[in-house]
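Subject: for your reference before the review

Hello V.,

The reviewers asked for a structural picture of the protein, and I figured it would be easier to keep everything in one thread rather than splitting it across files. Below is the amino acid sequence we used in the manuscript, unchanged from the supplementary table.
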Amino acid sequence: MTNGSTELTPPEVTADDVLRVPDDHFTTDTVAIVTGGGSGIGQATSVALAINGLTVAAVDIDAEGLEETVDVAMALDAEGRVVPVESDLTDDDAVEAAVDEAADLGTIRYAANIAGMQHIASIADFPMETYDFMHDLMLRSPFLLSKLVIPHIEATDDGVGAIGNMSSVHGHYATQNKPAYITLKHGLTGLTRAIAAEGGGSLRGFSVSVGYVLTPLMVDQIEDTAEERGISEQAVIEDVMLGQARTKSMMTPAEVANLFVFGFSSHATQLNGGDLLWDGGYTTTYE
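And here is what came back from the structure prediction:
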């Protein structure tokens, strides 16, 4: 959304969109694992980290999406590189294989748990098979990935590294009809703090919480909500999604990616167990 008009095409990442942070560990010898790397925030984060010189193991079940991520990074002349790792994050063996593949690329120091999904239904009507899938994807997988990545970070010469978890404003408060998403995002807060508690100071855990981001999944949600409520897509954006916010624009995937770039960098050494809340005023203001 720009200048009051509806733009339902997720913006492409450009080189100018990406925060560049000088850091001694941001080299092609250093590996960052990014889940959900085939689209949306995961794709933007993979590209942003590659532009900052890192080797990125972009993990996703979507092979075509991963190839697109590689192409975007190459088109932007990234100093680092994106390596596609096709994997089902709900399969423990596949997650282990993905980490092993990432370890073959260099020294693993960073992991961004971004992959996720949404399902709209009340608690009473929520299908448990959908809950189980969301739990495996959005909480169990981040826990397992962290379990597997931590020994790699601890084995480095200085033990420096970080695990960033994609949370949400729904990791801070609850609204109706998103009970699984809310439950799992609150669970990520606990995982983030547990990583910080056990990391010894040099291995950090942090989370990123944002409001609505213009991703392909969000475009679908806008269209579905407009049809369900019998209102325009513009009204969905302005009244339903941004009604509570003070900043009246949706975030771009690149803006979220930049928070992971900063969070992984040496400029964020005091960000440990904490949350980068970039929400346009959703959770801190009201009328």
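For the response letter, the relevant points are probably these. The longest helix spans residues 128-154. Residues 1-6 have pLDDT under 50 and may be disordered.

Happy to draft the paragraph if you're swamped.

O.
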